[in-house]
Amino acid sequence: MEVQLTNRQQHILWATVRHYIATAEPVGSKTLVEEYDLGVSSATIRNIMGVLEKSGFLYQPHTSAGRVPSDSGYRIYVDQLIQPSLRSRSVSQTDALASLLPRSGTESLAKEVELALQKRLHWEDWSLETLLQGAAQILATLSGCISLITMPQTTTALVRHLQLVQIEAGKIMLIVVTDGYETHSKLMDLSPASEETQPEPEVIDRELQIVSNFLNSHLRGRSLLELASLDWSQLDREFQRYGEFLKTSVAELTRRTLAPTATQIMVRGVAEVLRQPEFSQLQQVQTIIHLLEEEQDQLWRLIFEEPEPEDLGKSKVTVRIGAENPLEPIRTCSLISSTYRRGSVPVGSVGVLGPTRLDYESAIAVVAAAADYLSEAFS
C-alpha cells in the first residue's frame, strides 16, 4: 500500500536520503537548510523530520546525531520519489513533486551504459563467458556496486508438437513434445456448463483435434514459456469452452517442466564496494564473500525471477532493500536485479549489490540498460 506523504514531507525525505547517500553522515535540519532550497525554516524541517522518524522512515543512530534513512525510508524513496517512479504516478502528484525535485541524469547514464557495452564488447569475436565477464566489469565500474550476471539458461525447450486427447468423459490430457523429444503431459477435468450441453464423445474428439491443430499452428517452434501467453480469444466461438481449461493446464505444465537450473554467476567490483564504511566489520565482509563464492545457488534463486506468463517480454527491475532480502549475509545491503531475455523468454539475470546507502536512481538505470542490451544481443 502506497504511503501518502505531503509534498513537503516528500521533499524533506528526498533531501535527507540524497544527502546521506552522498556523505554517509547523519543529516540534521541545519544541513538541509544550508544545502537545499526547501523554503522553510530549520525548526519546521526539524519537526517534519521528527514526524518522519515516528513513521519509521528515519532514525537517529545516536541521541545527539542527525537522522539517517531506514529501510522503509529507502523504500518510499525508491517507490515514490525518484524519477523512474514519477512516470507511474498520477498527473497531479507528478506535477507537484516534479516542481520540487530536480531532474536526474538517469537517461544519460543509461545511454552511457549502452554505449560502453557497445564500444567495449564484441559479440562476434568473443566467447559467451568472456562477453558476460566484460559486461559485469562495465556494470561494476559504472554503478560502483558489486555486479552480478548469471550465465544463460541452456535448456530453452521449444514446442515440437501438441495434442489434446480425451481420456474418458470429462477428462482431457494435454501432451507436449519438445524439440529434444521430451514428452510432458497434464490431465485436467473439463466441466460442462450443464448436463444438457455435454457433447457426445465423438464430437469432443473432433473438436480436440481442431484445437490441437490450432495450437500447433501457433506454437510449433516457440518456447514452452511462450505457450502460456497465447491469446486464447483467437479460438473460434464454438471452441471457447476449452480456453480456460487450456490456459490453466498450460500454465501449470509450464511451471512444472521449466523449473530453471542455477548457473554460474559472474561477480565483479567486490574490492571497491567493500571499502564503503558500511562494510568496516571484517565478519560482515567475510559472510558476503562466502555467499558470493560458496553459496551462489542461493543468490541465483534470488536474482533470477521467472515472470508470470502475462509479463513475458516486459522489462522489470526488482529492488530489494535491507531486511527485504531473505539471505542473512545481505540483509544490510540492497540488491537490484532484472532479467535478460532471448526473444520474450528470460534466460539470465543482471544485478548489482551494494549498501542500502546507494544511488538507487542510477543503479536502477544501469541495471535496466544492461539487461536491455544483453536481451538485444541474445535475440
TrEMBL record:
Source species: Nostoc paludosum FACHB-159
Pfam family for this entry, one: HrcA
Function summary: Negative regulator of class I heat shock genes (grpE-dnaK-dnaJ and groELS operons). Prevents heat-shock induction of these operons.
InterPro entries per UniProt: GAF-like_dom_sf, HrcA, HrcA_C, WH-like_DNA-bd_sf, WH_DNA-bd_sf, WHTH_transcript_rep_HrcA_IDD
Lineage top rank: taxon: Bacteria
Gene that specifies this protein: hrcA
Protein name: Heat-inducible transcription repressor HrcA
Positions of the Heat-inducible transcription repressor HrcA C-terminal domain: 129-364
Keywords, in A-Z order: Repressor, Stress response, Transcription, Transcription regulation
UniProt KW Cytoplasm keyword: no
Family affiliation: Belongs to the HrcA family.
SUPFAM superfamilies given in the database record: GAF domain-like (SSF55781), Winged helix' DNA-binding domain (SSF46785)
